[in-house]
């Protein structure tokens, strides 16, 4: 039996990494896949920072199970981060909506966890990060996109509102992903 890759998607500021950490804390054994990204390390998000050259070398060497580009950066899921799938363990991964088609082709048990929140909540969260101006935040919110049209119809999509506390969104997501847990 293979585990599920649970692709966590949503607009910037929706709290993807926070909800994923909350889910993993509540469900031991649920792995949060650490991405490789071509940007400097950040305290707010655990990832492997890589230069463009190092990313290209590793991609060419087949070190990534999935790689994509978005917003001027390169992102990838290193192969070892998803090793547990072969053993039947689920893994959470913060993915771009643009990568979902490739993820569905590569991972037959893909599930999409789409986190959502009203624009005013997203704007407040992004402003709280202090990394972007008000104009940059407005531009980021304006380019929020729906799930891609090429996502296969048989890929389950679970939509969760994360406008409240992240623990509530984590519990709702876990109940949807593991209904046997919610029933007990």
UniProtKB/TrEMBL annotation:
Top-level class of the enzyme under EC nomenclature: transferase
- Pathway(s) the chain acts in: Metabolic intermediate biosynthesis; 5-phospho-alpha-D-ribose 1-diphosphate biosynthesis; 5-phospho-alpha-D-ribose 1-diphosphate from D-ribose 5-phosphate (route II): step 3/3
Q: Which InterPro entries match?
A: GK/Ca_channel_bsu, P-loop_NTPase, PhnN
- Where in the numbering of this chain does the Guanylate kinase/L-type calcium channel beta subunit domain appear? 2-177
SUPFAM superfamilies referenced in this protein's UniProt entry, alphabetically = P-loop containing nucleoside triphosphate hydrolases (SSF52540)
Catalyses which reaction(s): alpha-D-ribose 1,5-bisphosphate + ATP = 5-phospho-alpha-D-ribose 1-diphosphate + ADP
Q: Which residues cross the membrane?
A: none
Molecular function per GO: ATP binding; ribose 1,5-bisphosphate phosphokinase activity
Q: Which GO terms describe its biological process?
A: 5-phosphoribose 1-diphosphate biosynthetic process; organic phosphonate metabolic process
**EC number(s) from the headed UniProt entry:** 2.7.4.23
Residues that coordinate or bind ATP: 10-17
Kindly state which keywords UniProt assigns to this record, in alphabetical order.
ATP-binding, Kinase, Nucleotide-binding, Transferase
* Gene3D superfamilies for this protein: P-loop containing nucleotide triphosphate hydrolases
Q: Which family does it belong to?
A: Belongs to the ribose 1,5-bisphosphokinase family.
Please give the function described in this protein's UniProt entry.
Catalyzes the phosphorylation of ribose 1,5-bisphosphate to 5-phospho-D-ribosyl alpha-1-diphosphate (PRPP).
- Listed name of the protein: Ribose 1,5-bisphosphate phosphokinase PhnN
Species per Swiss-Prot/TrEMBL record: Rhodosalinus sediminis
> What high-level taxonomic lineage is stated for the organism?
Bacteria, Pseudomonadati, Pseudomonadota, Alphaproteobacteria, Rhodobacterales
Q: Point out the gene that encodes the protein.
A: phnN
């Amino acid at each position: 039996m293979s585990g599920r890759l649970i692709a966590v998607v949503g607009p910037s500021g929706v709290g993807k990494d926070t909800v994923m950490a909350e889910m993993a804390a509540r469900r031991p054994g649920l792995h949060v896949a650490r991405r490789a990204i071509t940007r400097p390390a950040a305290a707010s998000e655990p990832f492997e920072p890589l230069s463009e050259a190092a990313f290209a070398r590793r991609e060419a060497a087949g070190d990534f199970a999935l790689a994509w580009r978005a917003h001027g950066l390169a992102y990838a899921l290193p192969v070892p981060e998803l090793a547990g799938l072969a053993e039947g363990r689920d893994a959470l991964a913060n993915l771009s909506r643009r990568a979902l088609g490739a993820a569905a082709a590569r991972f037959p048990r893909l599930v999409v966890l789409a986190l959502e929140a009203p624009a005013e909540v997203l704007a407040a969260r992004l402003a709280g990060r202090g990394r972007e101006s008000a104009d940059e935040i407005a531009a980021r919110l304006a380019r929020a996109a729906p799930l891609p049209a090429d996502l296969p119809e048989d890929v389950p999509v679970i939509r969760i509102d994360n406008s409240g506390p992240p623990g509530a969104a984590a519990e709702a997501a876990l109940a949807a992903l593991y209904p046997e847990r919610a029933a007990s």
